[in-house]
Specification:
The complex is a heterodimer. Chain A has 14 helices and 22 strands. Chain A is an alpha/beta fold. In chain A, the strands form 7 sheets. A 4-stranded parallel sheet of chain A has the order 2-1-15-22, covered by helices on one side. In chain A, β4 and β5 form a beta hairpin. By secondary structure, chain B is mainly alpha-helical. Chain B has a domain of 84 residues: Cytochrome c-like domain (Cytochrome Bc1 Complex, Chain D, domain 2). In chain B, 47% of the residues lie in helices and 1% in strands. Chain B is built from 9 helices and 1 strand, in the order βααααααααα. The longest helix of chain B is centred in the middle third of the chain and has 15 residues. Chain B is globular. The chains are: A alpha/beta, B mainly alpha.
């Protein structure tokens, strides 16, 4: 590695081999650690006589996994769930299912068919989410590949190409061609002479030519890599005219959707449980000895000398229960409304977890028109508030399909959707979809939306702490206070993912083992 | 040790909650309210949901009706008011009456001061407010002014600023809100609003 820094080297490896090459090289060079997950925590077995009791508050993924591991180790677990259903934000809706939104209860009107479902919360699992994949295997949850990107899908922005949708493959190919042309030009004008010798510069120019599909003179004039404007089977292929560099820079795609499929959590291939993500919840429920107590809203949590006392209300009756330990999966921002005797620092930490505002729309489409357009899964990106359109990669060639018509992370966009009625949201989503797929609206048979920040018992998804609060409180919340442990994706660096929830459960069970060891000595 | 379920509340209660042994049960179908407003509607700043205990029935009915009619909460900048508005829009008149009688039966401890501001400065400003809300902020139904002494200071601050900015009290049908919007002109700075909120919350 003459005349080149380690970081520069990695940048080049990344450019040639993509992110995964960068990752492998980094591991080889000792810069990154591989995920150390080697299976769930081995919970200290419960004594056979006088089995300790554990209360688990909330039946989201972290609560279910914690109960499962503790039951396996012989503890007597009771899960209290405020909602009418188990699973938390792992929610799949089908015909007749309820979306319990504050002020707008919605019932799913999809046809009653196995392939017509909508994963309102988590919807994809990358191959490195080892904990989630471990439980899918352990709980017999069959998986299939989920196409998370399709180069045949579109990018659309009112301010780009007059609002005309552009196939992602065309955009990618042009972006790479135009960037390679710039690289070729800079190499040719001695920009890299300090860093590279003449032979290296020659290689760099060859590289840019190959990378961007440039002409012998280093020009990008379009590429067959993005298809042809003629029938490629019978005619001589002719590439699309490339977009202008200025248009590329003016478009809003390159800082959003362009790199969508490059993110580590979205690296292909991803997976999904066959028939809906709630198969994970059902898997846990099948393996738990005691089903969660539903419609049980926690009102008080008090740490006691040798246990935790919890009061919950169910059907207008208060119930006070005590247990030796408590694992709390309730959104932390609700805790200020629940009576407790936590220390002010611990409570301040809980208050620092803020609500997230993820929003999704799903439409039942009367035919899978996107398949006629060459799209079988993946995502189109829109500069409108809807942000994304997801095409199902399961049940290809079925008559109907559920299309994800919006997936917004921008709090401003989500706030707009939250303030609308469910019907208005569907109309707004249809108008944006129409720009990518003319005639979109006429395929819509019905639809449903999920504003997570308006969901009863959740009031948010994708919780976040600001950087300072993270420093001050995260490690504090990872540790138990008394015999009370906080869990959930909120107690992870990976909020909004089941893997984060499972990592928090694993972390808390590790702490539990310590506490049990301390109590026994 | 098996899980012990004690159905009669109060038997094994700690000293801390003994005082609140007559807690109100949540009427069926209104469990939504406590998700945000908390146990016994004690309030939760994280959600922007105020404590409701101690507010008088006539004021609660008026506000719930205002939310239901979109007289309150429809201003685009009133995020939490908008959230409340869409929640209340589904309630019937009977449900609103049920909610009001439930709220007045709740028992929760009066909130402590959470803002750091000069209460003495607030005391001076409050003299004007006292004309309607009373010397101890106990309220005066004849004036349409509610008891505000049991409200959280952060909530008083938010509402005061909403009145000042016309986010609340701008609707022609919100007669008392309009009065309050006019009265809020006595507050001219952010600091004054804070000190007033702190002063009101620390009143006995």
């Amino acid at each position: 590695m003459k005349n080149i820094s380690r970081r520069q080297f990695l940048t080049y490896v990344g450019a040639v081999g993509g992110t995964s090459a960068l990752l492998k090289t980094s591991i080889a060079m000792g810069l990154m650690k591989e995920d150390p997950f080697k299976g769930p925590v081995k919970v200290t077995p419960a004594p056979i006589k006088n089995k300790p009791s554990v209360l688990i508050l909330g039946s989201g993924i972290a609560g279910l996994a914690t109960a499962f591991e503790l039951e396996q180790a012989g503890y007597d677990c009771t899960i209290l769930e405020a909602s009418f259903r188990a699973g938390g934000r792992n929610l799949t809706v089908r015909n007749g299912d309820k979306i319990d939104e504050m002020g707008h209860t919605q019932i799913c009107n999809f046809d009653k068919q196995d392939n017509l479902f909508f994963n309102c919360g988590p919807a994809r699992i990358p191959g490195h989410h080892k904990r989630t994949l471990h439980y899918c295997k352990a709980l017999n949850v069959p998986l299939q590949i989920k196409a998370n990107s399709s180069k045949m899908a579109y990018f659309q922005d009112d301010k780009f190409l007059g609002g005309k949708p552009k196939r992602i493959i065309e955009y990618h190919t042009d972006a790479r061609g135009l960037m390679s042309e710039l690289l070729w030009k800079s190499a040719d004008s001695n920009t890299f002479n300090q860093m590279l010798n003449a032979e290296d510069v020659e290689k760099l120019m060859d590289f840019s030519k190959a990378f961007g599909d440039l002409t012998e003179n280093g020009k990008y004039i379009g590429s067959e890599r993005a298809g042809s404007i003629t029938d490629r089977m019978l005619d001589y292929p002719q590439p699309h005219a490339p977009m202008e560099l200025k248009a590329l820079l003016d478009s809003r795609f390159w800082y959003g959707g362009l790199l969508g499929a490059e993110l580590y959590d979205w690296c292909e291939p991803l997976m999904e449980p066959i028939g809906g993500m709630d198969a994970v919840v059902k898997g846990f429920l099948r393996h738990l000895k005691k089903p969660p107590v539903l419609n049980a809203q926690v009102k008080k949590i008090f740490n006691k000398a040798n246990g935790v006392e919890v009061t919950y209300e169910q059907g207008g009756e208060f119930h006070t229960v005590t247990a030796d330990y408590c694992f709390n999966n309730i959104p932390a921002y609700f805790m200020a409304g629940i009576e407790n005797n936590f220390s002010s620092t611990y409570q301040a930490g809980l208050n620092s977890v803020k609500r997230g505002h993820l929003f999704k729309i799903a439409y039942q489409m009367k035919s899978r028109f996107w398949e006629d357009d060459g799209i079988y899964g993946g995502i189109s990106y829109s500069a409108d508030a809807i942000s994304q359109i997801w095409y199902p990669s399961h049940d290809i060639n079925a008559q109907k399909g559920i299309l994800l018509g919006a997936y917004t992370w921008d709090p401003k966009h989500s706030a707009m959707f939250e303030s609308l009625t469910p019907l208005e949201r569907l109309k707004v989503g249809a108008m944006s979809g129409e720009k990518i797929h003319p005639g979109y609206s006429k395929y819509i048979e019905n639809g449903i939306s999920i504003p997570w920040a308006r969901m009863n018992h959740q009031m948010g998804c994708g919780m976040r702490m600001n950087k300072d609060d993270f420093k001050t409180y995260f490690h504090l919340l990872q540790k138990p206070e008394g015999r009370h442990f906080m869990i959930g994706d909120q107690i992870s660096h990976h909020s909004g993912w089941q893997e984060g929830a499972l990592a928090s459960s694993e972390q808390a069970l590790g702490q539990f083992n310590h506490l049990v060891a301390t109590n026994r000595t | 040790m098996w899980l012990k379920v004690i159905l009669s509340v109060g038997m094994l209660m700690s000293a801390a909650n003994m005082a609140l042994a007559n807690e109100a049960h949540t009427p069926q179908g209104l469990e939504y309210c406590t998700v945000c407003h908390g146990s016994q509607l004690k309030g939760n700043q994280n959600i922007g949901a105020p404590r409701l205990t101690s507010l008088p029935a006539w004021y609660l009915s008026r506000q719930l009706n205002n939310f239901q009619q979109g007289v309150r909460g429809s201003h685009p900048k009133d995020t939490t008011g908008g959230e409340m508005m869409s929640m209340v829009s589904t309630f019937s008149d009977e449900q609103i009456a049920e909610i009001v009688s439930w709220i007045v039966s709740t028992e929760s401890t009066k909130p402590a001061v959470s803002l750091s501001a000069d209460a003495h400065k607030g005391e001076q400003l409050y003299k004007t407010c006292a004309a309607c809300h009373g010397v101890n902020a106990q309220g005066n139904e004849a004036m349409g002014a509610p008891n505000i002494s049991g409200l959280n200071d952060w909530y008083i601050l938010t509402q005061l600023n909403h009145f000042r900015d016309g986010i609340r009290g701008g609707d022609a049908e919100d007669i008392y809100g309009q009065q309050m919007k006019a009265a809020s002109a006595i507050v001219t700075t952010k600091e004054e609003a804070e000190s007033l909120a702190v002063y009101i919350t620390q009143l006995k």
